[in-house]
Amino acid sequence: MKHEWRKKEKNYYMPITKPEIVNMEKLKFIQIKGSGNPNSEEFSEKVGTLYSLAYAIKMMPKKGITPIGYFDYTVYPLEGIWDLKEESRNDEVFDKNNLVYTIMIRQPKFVNEGVFQEAIDIVKKKNKNILLDEVEFCTIDEGMCVQMMHIGPFDDEYKTFEVMKQFCEDNNLLIKNKAHREIYISDFRKTSQEKLKTVLRYMVESK
């Protein structure tokens, strides 16, 4: 039976529209770093590079390659860790060109460095995309987090962040760093701004 993250991992990917605490396990990702406006062509190319690898891994058995422990699954959603360049943190006007990001797609447990390198080789045979050399395979342990589902435009996320910050204050939780995670449940290329679903998440610790 296919592993579908929307059904099997609702606690990670389908939170309610109120802040909640979630304890994350260690998870595997393929990721690529960048900076600047997410509406740029460069950002789109990096997203495309990640998806080409994610689907190469999923489709390996059709290439005659079946990694140990392989199971069928739905490719996980795009995620991003977002921050601002240090020199722009105190700017009065928010400028998307000052953003720093790491975008990523989670990988199933059977994926390891060897499987990742095999996927790189598969994609390179089809596409000489130079961005492939910037992609990394990693394990991330977020631990305790506060998360909430944001529904609506990305530019309105600050309203949801304010609710989350107040929740942390009320529950004696300290946000561990200025960066935050976003998980794009909706396809933002096809979904209207008002209907976009985005999981917002802070890593936290007790005060």
Concise overview:
This is GyrI-like domain-containing protein. With 207 residues, the chain is of the alpha+beta class.
Keywords:
207 residues; alpha+beta; Multidrug-efflux Transporter 1 Regulator Bmrr, Chain A; nine-stranded antiparallel sheet; 26% helix; globular; GyrI-like domain-containing protein; GyrI-like; Reg_factor_effector_dom_sf; GyrI-like_CCH_Lin2189-like
Can you walk through the features of this model?
- With 207 residues, the protein is of the alpha+beta class.
- It has 2 domains: 13-24 and 143-207, Multidrug-efflux Transporter 1 Regulator Bmrr, Chain A; 26-140, Regulatory factor, effector binding domain (Multidrug-efflux Transporter 1 Regulator Bmrr, Chain A, Alpha-Beta Barrel), CATH 3.20.80.10.
- 26% of the residues lie in helices and 29% in strands.
- It contains 5 helices and 9 strands; from the N terminus they run ααββαββαββαβββ.
- Strands 1, 2, 3, 4, 5, 6, 7, 8 and 9 form a 9-stranded antiparallel beta sheet that branches.
- Helix 3 (41-58) crosses helix 4.
- The termini are far apart.
Rg, Å, rounded? 18 Å
Please give the CATH class of the largest domain.
Answer: Alpha Beta
Please, how many domains? 2
Q: pLDDT under 50 segments (min length 5)? A: none
Shape: globular
Q: What share of the residues does DSSP label as strand, in percent?
A: 25-35%
The main β sheet shows up as: 9 strands, antiparallel
Helix content: 25-40%
Number of strands: 9
Return the string of H and E elements. Answer: HHEEHEEHEEHEEE
- Structural class, from secondary structure content? alpha+beta
> What is the typical, i.e. mean, pLDDT?
94
Q: What's the tally of helices?
A: 5
CATH architecture of the largest domain: Alpha-Beta Barrel
Straight-line N-to-C gap: 43 Å
CATH superfamily of the largest domain: Regulatory factor, effector binding domain
CATH topology of the largest domain: Multidrug-efflux Transporter 1 Regulator Bmrr, Chain A
